[in-house]
């Protein structure tokens, strides 16, 4: 049975695999339309090539890149502005174009904290996505981006406090502040063990991050059992788009809304 079509929007190459790799692989395996938009880095950089390899493993299509520079790596988009410095209307418009082209029923992105790390690019990508998901459904906004499309659900990738306490020390460096949400705020806890091999393969496809000792590199050095413990569940908070609460879920759905009504028909 096909799951709802899915678009993931994340800040950097590797965020998609770390935060939602299992959900992406699951939706792609079901035959649903699945895609990823990455806010920073340029397609022709080494990380653009790594992103393409990771998405191939997950079955999430070709990279879609907004082309802005990483806040801390100017060479990530030669000649481009930093994501956090980009005009808001322009950045939202770029993302609206991808939403209207992919026409997803479900969108996933960073939570308002920017995940465990609180990276400024993560937080800005969250803001852009929330605005773009709303704007995409209004015909008079960004008419040049194509016919309007309204996703029926927006989910924010996050960590509950309990998991952050248990797992965060292995995921975060000791000197970093860690951000998480109360356990009762979690709307979907997805067991992605059936797709874990794909998720780990996609994480490790970001070879430059492995080599420099970032999170993919720390995961690469762990024993398989520990990697599974850290990566086997993905947690999401549902952002209200006016279709009601979705507590207690074990997957991302358009619960309470018929996809063809919420997002239009294909």
**Strand fraction:** 5-15%
Gap from first CA to last CA = 17 Å
Q: Would you list the SSEs in sequence order as H and E?
A: EHEHEHEHEHEHHHHEH
What level of helicity do the residues show?
Answer: 25-40%
- Within the largest sheet, what's the order of strands? 3-2-1-4-5-7-6
DSSP summary: helix tally: 10
Mean pLDDT: 91
Description:
Helix content is 38%, strand content 15%. By secondary structure, it is an alpha/beta fold. It has a 7-stranded mixed beta sheet, sandwiched between helices. Strand 4 (106-110), helix 4 (120-135) and strand 5 (153-158) form a beta-alpha-beta unit. The longest helix has 16 residues, at 120-135. The chain starts with 5 loop residues before the first strand and ends with a helix.
Briefly characterize the structure.
The chain has 266 residues and is α/β, with parallel strands linked by helices.
Q: What structural keywords apply?
A:
alpha/beta, 38% helix, single chain, 7-stranded mixed sheet, 266 residues, disordered C terminus, 15% strand
Secondary structure blueprint with pairings:
Elements: E1 6-10, H1 15-29, E2 34-40, H2 46-58, E3 64-68, H3 88-102, E4 106-110, H4 120-135, E5 153-158, H5 161-171, E6 188-191, H6 196-204, H7 207-211, H8 215-220, H9 224-231, E7 233-239, H10 259-262
Parallel strand pairs: 1-2, 1-4, 2-3, 4-5
Antiparallel strand pairs: 5-7, 6-7
Helix pairs in contact: 1-2, 1-6, 2-6, 3-4
